[in-house]
Amino acid sequence: MKNFAQNCERIAATPKKLEKIAIVAEFLKSAPTDEASVAAVFLSGRPFPVWEETTLQVGGALLWRVVRELSAKSEAELTAAYRKLGDLGAVAAEVLSAQVEAGDPAHPTLVEVQTTFRTIAAARGPGAKGALARELLSQVTPLEAKYIIKIMTGDLRIGLKESLVEEAIARAYGATLSEVQRANMLLGDIGETLRLAAGGRLAKARMRLFHPLGLMLASPAASSEEALSYFENSLVEDKYDGIRAQAHVSGDEVRIFSRTRDEITESFPELPDALAGLPEGVIFDGEIVAWDYGEEDPGRALPFSALGRRLGRKKVSEQLMREVPVAYLVFDVLYGNNELLIDRPLSERATLLDELLARRSTSSRARTHGLHQGKLSFGSEEQRLNAQVIRAPVFNASSATELDQLFEAAQARGNEGLMIKDPESAYTPGRRGKSWLKLKRELATLDVVVTAVEYGHGKRIGVLSDYTFAVWHGNRLANIGKAYSGLTDAEIGEMTKWFLEHKVEDQGFRLIVEPKIVLEVAFNNMMRSDRHESGYALRFPRIARLRPDKSPEDADTIETVREIYEKQERSS
Known about the structure:
Elements: H1 2-13, H2 17-30, H3 33-43, H4 60-71, H5 75-85, H6 88-95, H7 110-122, H8 125-138, H9 142-153, H10 162-173, H11 177-187, H12 190-198, E1 217-220, H13 224-228, E2 234-239, E3 243-251, E4 253-258, H14 271-275, E5 278-292, E6 300-301, H15 304-307, H16 318-323, E7 326-336, E8 339-340, H17 346-358, E9 368-369, H18 381-385, E10 389-391, E11 395-397, H19 400-412, E12 417-421, E13 432-440, E14 444-455, E15 464-473, E16 476-483, H20 489-501, E17 503-506, E18 510-513, E19 518-523, E20 525-528, E21 536-539, E22 542-546, H21 558-571
Parallel strand pairs: 1-13, 7-10, 9-10
Antiparallel strand pairs: 2-11, 2-12, 3-4, 3-5, 5-6, 5-7, 7-8, 12-13, 14-15, 14-18, 14-19, 15-16, 17-18, 19-22, 20-21
């Protein structure tokens, strides 16, 4: 662990990508394979491989208490250190000293540290987990503690991504980067990928179902004309206001993963039955949306605010499933017929997707329905209630006029906009390019007043970059959201100075400030929420610009918010 921590310091000290890769490659090559395998996982910023279901379930608050107890520092001292450093691991390195009473620390190996992590993951309750974390941290140097905590929180912050670790593995063991990337994608385990690379066996990697692949990402397009400048004869889909979801299906076993690779199957217990029935393994890409099946028409997606009632729940009642029915709109297939399909062009994948859904067993309780060119038919009432898997409609457009018409039609259906895709494009997991484009417009903007600010993290350590903002509710300000993107570094620096000079209350990480700064905030959607005093919350808020030309009194009111919300609900 000591050597690992020292190399992490070297990696963090250089801003140069190639130097980082060289340091990692040298370290991995010099370590025994068992240690190097664990190191590759740790250097990717996680305690366990991606495919594993194991989680530590140790929060920052618990680790904060452990560091405070081991360091014998006061809450105020710890808070001051965090405000300066912006990272609990770095705080631990600063405040922990002379932990070992005599002799050298134990310097556990990386394998031993991961074994302890597994013990912590298996422990029940914060007391048991905290005791194990405290024992581990009490046996190592402050520098080792720094990186143990960073790994536990999943935030290494040394300028290293898993993609750079892949490059280092290729360099260390004489493989090509594409060979390493493909093996890691198939296995979901960069440690096992390293083992195969060390033995010259990367070609032996085989697809492991039920570990999520990275999702292909889209780039924004400012206009229909720009979208069509990248490719011709585009395939066009509605951009739905739901959550991206990857479904892995093998017979009756179904698991669903979010875009962050978290399993969300329990939140949508009706979908496994709807997806089950394919005898061979498949991986679908799609969107989960709240869905109004309607009485006579094929139904339509509901706003994200409706779906919000279903998110994050481990137990979902039958009543809630009836009140907020969902649909899984499938638009791509990544694996099927025992073959990885991502290298095939989208047009071929679309044909295979249609074939797979058509071949789906009709013996399971729920049925899959096709929705092509806006047409969808239902059978019996039971089928209608269980029709949760829908083939996302696909249209064609070769002119800006056609795209604009499709855009207006998508918004009339209550959807965000359009996805515009190159029919010749391969599926590139975790990458954003110009093969997939998204065309959407913000719902609206609001002029809001900043009421509180928080210190940032990573590159924004030491500056106030997270702004809580409010609208007028009568003669008082009612918070409606928080945003941290949209301003330049220079603007954030200037605003930090202003906020520090105009703070009303210092809460440590958070400052209550004089309500004098007006922002224009853009957002995609609005929902009812008990989290904010206003009773509303904005989805994906971002700062459009500072409004020094406006006084706080010029900010928008709760009446404006209600009007925007009601218009949104009417359109949906």
